[in-house]
UniProtKB/TrEMBL annotation:
<dbReference type="InterPro" id="IPR002823">
    <property type="entry name" value="DUF112_TM"/>
</dbReference>
<feature type="transmembrane region" description="Helical">
    <location>
        <begin position="20"/>
        <end position="39"/>
    </location>
</feature>
<feature type="domain" description="DUF112">
    <location>
        <begin position="20"/>
        <end position="443"/>
    </location>
</feature>
<feature type="transmembrane region" description="Helical">
    <location>
        <begin position="359"/>
        <end position="382"/>
    </location>
</feature>
<protein>
    <submittedName>
        <fullName>Tripartite tricarboxylate transporter permease</fullName>
    </submittedName>
</protein>
<keyword id="KW-0472">Membrane</keyword>
<feature type="transmembrane region" description="Helical">
    <location>
        <begin position="468"/>
        <end position="491"/>
    </location>
</feature>
<feature type="transmembrane region" description="Helical">
    <location>
        <begin position="166"/>
        <end position="184"/>
    </location>
</feature>
<feature type="transmembrane region" description="Helical">
    <location>
        <begin position="107"/>
        <end position="136"/>
    </location>
</feature>
<feature type="transmembrane region" description="Helical">
    <location>
        <begin position="204"/>
        <end position="223"/>
    </location>
</feature>
<feature type="transmembrane region" description="Helical">
    <location>
        <begin position="142"/>
        <end position="159"/>
    </location>
</feature>
<keyword id="KW-1133">Transmembrane helix</keyword>
<feature type="transmembrane region" description="Helical">
    <location>
        <begin position="46"/>
        <end position="70"/>
    </location>
</feature>
<feature type="transmembrane region" description="Helical">
    <location>
        <begin position="394"/>
        <end position="411"/>
    </location>
</feature>
<dbReference type="Pfam" id="PF01970">
    <property type="entry name" value="TctA"/>
</dbReference>
<keyword id="KW-0812">Transmembrane</keyword>
Length: 506
């Protein structure tokens, strides 16, 4: 176990007052930027990248450790409180987290997210330290057919699990895939579904889709019911973010399940943390149906928040390990960090541990330190963020609308994106009104381009032979598990429908 002495040397370098100061600065700045709706962890790293150029490499990357996980901690805060996640990886956390916030448990929800992010990050960083050679070998086994199988798995598993109706789930998924097809087709350079509008040639930005469907859709839905349901938000009580023993026991298995989903996905470019967070959420939904949990989907389930939050940070931790060991960025944030390494004349990969071993192990040690700092910081700040819900409802939703418009316009300076935002907000309102789930649409938008690209690559390699899609043990195993999940889900839906008919007849 030669990693232990190297890690201890890294702690000796990181635990100096000078370096601890940069961990704290990075954690505060990363959390602050991550909390702002529409920005998120990748934007936090991008915005703070120029600040580090005046620092020596060790201090710079120690600060990045704080920024990296700080942005992830902050991503879910706006989603839980305002239903506007800072990044797409926090979307799954908003479904139950926002319900908890609306029912007076905002501080508990934020504390649950903070502990989940800590556990997921801790587990994944430990895996990176001790098992990165094995995980890197596993990552190299994935080709285009395996990536396509993962995308199909996410499509159908989410559509069949999180929706009360399989047909509605698949319908929402097809809407998401249709939105993902807008823009220039990469391999052929052909314009698709852009109606000749130059601003749509690059497709519809995920920020526009997320803010429009979740934030503006929620605003319109709340406005339509503000007189029918004037007390739809219960103000949080208590000033200290605490999780009781009973809630902790409920959340602990979900945190561990979420971490198990997230850690492997950080090593493969299969859509970042979105896939494991939605799969973790879908698993908790299926378990809740089996237990007949009255909180899930209604007042807010702590398990439905804990699992995706742990999955997101577990993915981020192993994504950083893949970047260091292979030089392969598997997320947007990791890609920005790759640019930071290159700015200092270093190329992540197997030789990085030999040429800059002291810096790498100091960075890994600072990740552990940053997680502890962020846990304490966010547990203390949770009641402060929860007080946002004391703002009167009409002012709160008006502020969300303004922030959504400003955030979208600031990212692109395009009026077309504002029109799209309004259109997607109306779509989100209609989907809520008619009981269509949002999760399949979001997963379709996020993974649609990946599925299309990998399918075309696989068919190009095989010269059009579709058997390549089921030619490896990994793909066969993925499809077998998928068929099992879909069959079980359909049986459960039919059973629930039969029980509902019996109750109505009675």
């Amino acid at each position: 176990m030669e990693q232990i002495p190297l890690l201890l040397d890294g702690f000796a370098s990181a635990l100096t007052p000078y370096n601890l100061l940069f961990v704290l600065i990075g954690a505060v700045l990363g959390t602050a930027v991550g909390v702002l709706p529409g920005l998120g962890s990748s934007m936090a790293v991008a915005l703070l990248l120029p600040i580090t150029f005046a620092l020596d490499p060790t201090a710079a990357f120690i600060m990045f450790a704080g920024v990296y996980f700080g942005g992830l901690f902050g991503d879910s805060t706006a989603g839980i409180l305002l239903n506007t996640p800072g990044q797409s990886s926090a979307i799954a956390s908003t479904f139950e987290g926002h319900r908890m916030a609306r029912n007076g448990r905002a501080a508990v929800a934020l504390a649950t997210a903070a502990i989940g992010a800590f556990i997921g990050g801790l587990i994944s960083t430990t895996i990176v330290v001790f098992f990165s050679p094995v995980l890197v070998t596993m990552a190299t086994e994935f080709g285009p057919a395996e990536y396509f199988a993962l995308a199909v798995f996410a499509f159908l598993a989410i559509s069949s699990v999180v929706s009360e109706s399989v047909l509605r789930g698949i319908g929402a998924l097809l809407l998401g895939v249709a939105l993902a097809l807008v823009g220039i087709d990469g391999p052929s350079g052909t314009e698709r579904y852009s109606f000749g509008i130059p601003n749509l040639f690059d497709g519809i930005d995920i920020v526009v889709v997320t803010v429009g469907l979740l934030a503006l859709g929620e605003v319109l839905h709340a406005a339509s019911r503000i007189h029918r349901d004037p007390s739809s938000i219960t103000l949080p009580t208590g000033g200290i973010a605490r999780i009781g023993k009973q809630d902790f026991r409920k959340a602990l298995p979900a945190w561990l399940r979420g971490s198990a989903f997230g850690a492997p996905f950080g090593m493969i470019p299969a859509g970042g943390a979105e896939v494991p967070t939605f799969l973790a959420y879908g698993t908790e939904k299926r378990l809740a149906d089996r237990r007949q949990d009255p909180e899930f989907g209604k007042s807010g389930s702590i398990k439905g928040l804990a699992a995706p939050e742990a999955a997101a940070n577990a993915t981020a931790g192993t994504a950083l390990g893949t970047l260091l060991a292979l030089g392969l960025p598997t997320s947007a944030t990791a890609a920005i960090l790759l640019a930071a390494f290159q700015q200092y004349g270093m190329q992540p990969g197997p030789l990085l541990f030999q040429r800059s071993g002291e810096l790498v192990w100091t960075l890994l040690a600072s990740l552990f330190i940053g997680l502890v700092v962020l846990l304490l910081l966010n547990m203390l700040l949770a009641p402060v963020w929860a007080r946002l819900l004391f703002i009167p409802q009409h002012y709160l939703y008006a502020g969300i609308t303004v922030l959504a418009m400003l955030g979208v316009y600031a990212t692109s300076s395009s009026y077309v994106d504002l029109y799209l935002l309004v259109g997607l907000g109306v779509l989100g309102f209609l989907m809520r009104r008619f009981g269509m789930p949002l999760a399949p649409l979001m997963i379709g938008v996020i993974l649609g381009p990946l599925a299309e690209t990998e399918l075309r690559r696989a068919l190009a390699v095989s010269e059009g032979d579709p058997s390549i899609l089921v030619s490896s043990p990994i793909t066969i195993g993925v499809y077998i598990v998928l068929v099992g999940i879909v069959v079980v889900s359909v049986v459960q839906h039919l059973r629930h429908a039969r029980e509902d008919r019996r109750q109505q007849a009675a």
